Amino acid sequence: LSICFRTVEPLEYYRRFLKENCRPDGRELGEFRATTVNIGNTGSITTADGSALVKLGNTTVICGVKAELAAPAVDSANKGYIVPNVELPSLCSTRFRSGPPGEEAQVASQFIADVIENSQIIAKEDLCIANGKLAWVLYCDIICLDYDGNILDASAFALLAALKNVQLPSVTINEETGLSEVNLKQKNPLIIRKHPVATSFAIFDDTLLIVDPTAEEEDLATGTVTIVTDDEGRLCSVHKPGGSPLTGAKLQDCITRAITRHKEVKKLIDKVIKSIKPK
């Protein structure tokens, strides 16, 4: 009976659970799904310069970072580039079609670009090798393998974990020939200056906030909001694509929960990195 009811009246079905301060999957309103991260060659992409796989419940996202050399832009001669791209291929969910990126993938890519810019996760100056001559370009491809909501949190987490895994060879410019020389034997990690973490909420019936929504919860929600915080609890960005307005008090609740989530994610990444360091 409950399966029929859920199919015919999904919102009413959800409301019955929310009244009891829980959700159909057994979680409390402020509870995240089980979160796991694999970094580097432990089950990720061996051809990338850094990679990570993140699972947030059934949502699975992989991020590969590929580094290439290029000339810096004329107006920022001392900076490199970071180029993010989020893909939601048809294989990850029936809601996406093959072909050029749809609206949700474009929004996610722009969100990740804003997180990189606003949080200063990496200083672009650190990617410059020789002023006006040579810099690193980091292509960050984030691909969803299985979609069940909350793509923004999973993508931001996978990006951060993959960047922490990147090792770049040392590059010098030969004074005589003017050519770049790459030393693959000597590799250095990226300097990660900030650890931005995204925390997403769905808004139910204009007032009720639930954290880490599934795809079904996103569809039934009257709005969503994503809060990005850094190590100091500083607000890097608030992403709110329309929907129900939020009171100042509700927004403050979201920020408080986001700061707690930041600590959980950072702890998880540190633990995984420690476990893969050569003994």
UniProtKB/TrEMBL annotation:
Q: State where the protein is found.
A: Cytoplasm; Nucleus, Nucleolus
Q: Does the keyword RNA-binding apply?
A: yes
**Which part of the chain is the Exoribonuclease phosphorolytic domain?**
41-169, 196-259
What keywords were assigned to this record? Acetylation, Cytoplasm, Exosome, Nucleus, RNA-binding, rRNA processing
One biological process term in Gene Ontology: U4 snRNA 3'-end processing
- Family classification: Belongs to the RNase PH family.
Query: What is the name attached to this protein's record?
Result: Exosome complex component RRP43
Organism for this UniProt entry: Tauraco erythrolophus
